[in-house]
Amino acid sequence: MSVVCLTDFEAHARERLSKSTWDYIGGGAGEGFTRDDNIAAFKKIRLRPRYLKDVSQVDTRTTIQGEEISAPICIAPTGFHCLAWPDGETSTARAAQAAGICYITSTYASCTLEDIVAAAPRGFRWFQLYVQPDRQLNKQLVQRVESLGFRALVITVDVPKLGNRRHDIRNQLNLKTNLLLKDLRSPQERNSVPYLQMSPIDSSFCWEDLSWFRTITQLPIILKGILTKEDAELAVKHNVQGIIVSNHGGRQLDDVPASVDALPEVVAAVKGKLEVYLDGGVRTGNDVLKALALGAKCVFLGRPVLWGLACKGEHGVGEVLNILKDEFHTSMALTGCRSVAEISQDLIQFSRL
């Protein structure tokens, strides 16, 4: 099959996956407005290229939390990769390691953390946590990922309750009885009976609770799901190390701003005191460039990684990452940027349309 862009992978993945799995991966909350707007919002931004610059050498490398990555294109946390490919997250981890980028592993991974690490022992990984009501379970999980070499803790903040996902309701999708969540079990349970319930998320978790996490881990703390200057300012006040501007791929609260539309407000609010990243709607190298021009340190890919996984496993994820990296390299060269540091807001303008 001929695939030259991320949307080609989308079309092929749709053919390969069952309807319920496709709807789970692709669906949004409510009417799906925010899910679609994440993509459309990038098209309202125009590029202002600068020419007659020496772009014979273009360097896509950058750093996040002090660690070098080959390009500012990393993998967002998504759950249940075994729905897309039998080897699940182990394939994703190997592709990320080969690409030299960061992979944020989800609380709801369908492979054990140990298996993911064993599959890609040199990989650069962060861990995404859905805070559980059982504090001891949080502590065990966080200390486990730290001992396994994960390098940051990404706490998702936009799921005090699951969003209204109509497709999943129509399909009566019941992941908790179909998938084994090996990492949300006590050590005793892991060694005995299967754990077949998706553990509830703590809807009482609030800003003051972040200090408790600091007592149990030395890992940098990143908050995923911030969309406003008010919450960005609180993130700075509570001394977190990073923010992922995200609306959960439009899967939580519909009618919130597209991630890229919320990005400038958050970047302005933190005043350079912490790193800001973005996920949601990135489909081209131009999108990556636009996000960086607006102040993101890097972008994280969600659905496109699952499309690649569904098509070709590890090699499909690698192709998705390589296509986007190559497009980004071209976007840099054609706007006159020789390094990521040269990408600035001067390169973009907002369309009047």
From TrEMBL:
Glyoxylate binds at residues 24, 165, 248, 251. Its cofactor is FMN. Its EC number is 1.1.3.15. Residues 1-353 form the FMN hydroxy acid dehydrogenase domain. FMN binds at residues 77-79, 106, 128, 130, 156, 224, 246, 279-283, 302-303. Keywords: Flavoprotein, FMN, Oxidoreductase. Gene3D superfamilies: Aldolase class I. The active site is at 248 (proton acceptor). CDD domains: alpha_hydroxyacid_oxid_FMN (cd02809). GO terms for biological process: fatty acid alpha-oxidation. It catalyses: a (2S)-2-hydroxycarboxylate + O2 = a 2-oxocarboxylate + H2O2; 2-hydroxyoctanoate + O2 = 2-oxooctanoate + H2O2. This is (S)-2-hydroxy-acid oxidase. It comes from Myotis davidii.
